[in-house]
Specification:
347 residues; alpha/beta; Rossmann fold; 2 domains; seven-stranded parallel β-sheet; five-stranded parallel β-sheet; globular
């Protein structure tokens, strides 16, 4: 989305509040972008603590979460930089109908989530999940595993949502010798307008062998041995992959979901896995989190589950502050902000 222009903001008058504690290096990055601004940061572990933190007002927020009445409490708020790649939690609550710019941390997660996706695929192909479960029972499972071991080289990876994460996943998959298919809202637009660290991803869209639009998702799924779902959650993408789409998948296909749990019909997926209609699933996100103890997904042999952690890594806030600093420079100059959310699209 092309960001609308906004007025230049004098740096000496800007007050920035971060609801995450910053390191000296992170504060230095922010100060270097806008030297005369006031910066206040503190680790806020609850909405009450965030509410208290912003009680003195601010112009810009750097945050994961916000109180539901944020705009009433901060009538002078001029911009929110989210520390998440998704904006659904903000657009459905505190920033619903907000007139101010909202930007996300899209691009910060591209490396850890792309690595997670390839890891999940390799674990499935080499049956390491079977070995780990056998290890916990002190069982030597060599004979069971030998009949089903595979490689990912030469296989087709379908990427549903070709943003910063999908593009870095494609770059790594290409290095593994995989053929890549890409699905995006506008498949005619191959370039990536979002923020990505230098040298990562596929900014020009050169990697995919074929491009698909949203209406052609069943065709992409039918052609893919592995599928990576990196969609944000919007009204349009809710249950984007339902029973019809799952039925189109190859019998041995493996699907990884790192976007939002509700973009896949979880019940239909569990049924297909239970019946052996697809090969397996690597799930880091779920319709309800934490995943309920009674969910059938826990006990499925080829379901590899993790607790919504694929995007986390030790350098997360350093990279997020690098992006924030660049956006601060742009905001001060009145230039378009990186990763600006289009409320009409939901991301």
């Amino acid at each position: 989305m092309k960001a609308a222009a906004h007025a230049k903001f004098p740096s000496f008058a800007m007050k920035i509040v971060s609801t995450v504690a910053l390191s000296p290096n992170q504060r230095e990055m922010i100060a270097g972008a806008i030297p005369r601004a006031e910066l206040f940061d503190r680790a806020c572990r609850s909405i009450d603590e965030i509410t208290e933190m912003i009680s003195g007002g601010c112009d810009v927020m750097l945050t994961f979460r916000m109180p539901p009445d944020l705009l009433r409490r901060l009538p002078g708020l001029k911009w929110v930089q989210l520390l998440s790649a998704g904006a659904d939690h903000a657009l459905s609550g505190p920033l619903r109908d907000a007139a101010i710019p909202i930007t996300t941390a899209s691009g910060v997660h591209s490396t850890p989530i792309a690595e997670y996706t390839l890891c999940s695929m390799l674990v499935y192909a080499r049956r390491l999940h079977i070995a780990i479960r056998a290890q916990s029972r002190h069982e030597w499972a060599r004979r069971v595993m030998l009949s089903s071991l595979d490689v990912i080289r030469g296989k087709t990876l379908g990427i549903v949502g070709y943003g910063s994460i999908g593009r870095e996943t494609a770059r790594l998959a290409e290095a593994f010798g995989m053929r890549v298919l890409a699905l995006k809202r506008n498949p005619q637009e191959h370039r990536d307008a979002g923020w990505t660290p230098t040298g990562l991803g596929d900014p020009g869209g050169r990697i995919p062998a074929k491009w698909f639009g949203a209406e052609d998702r069943a065709a992409l799924l039918a052609e893919s041995d592995y599928i990576s779902v990196t969609l944000p959650l919007t009204d349009y993408t809710r249950k984007f992959i339902g029973a019809r789409e799952i039925a189109a998948m190859k019998p041995g296909a493996y699907i990884v979901n790192i976007g939002r749990g509700a973009v896949i019909d979880e019940s239909a997926l569990a049924d297909a896995l239970s019946a052996g209609k697809i090969g397996g699933a690597g799930l880091d996100v779920f319709e309800r989190e934490p995943l309920e103890a009674e969910s059938p997904l826990w006990d499925l042999e080829h379901a590899i589950l993790t607790p919504h952690m694929s995007g986390d890594f030790r350098g997360y806030m350093d990279m997020a502050c690098e992006l924030f600093a660049e956006n601060l420079r742009r905001f001060q100059l009145g230039d378009p902000l990186l990763n600006r959310v289009d409320p009409a699209q939901g991301y």
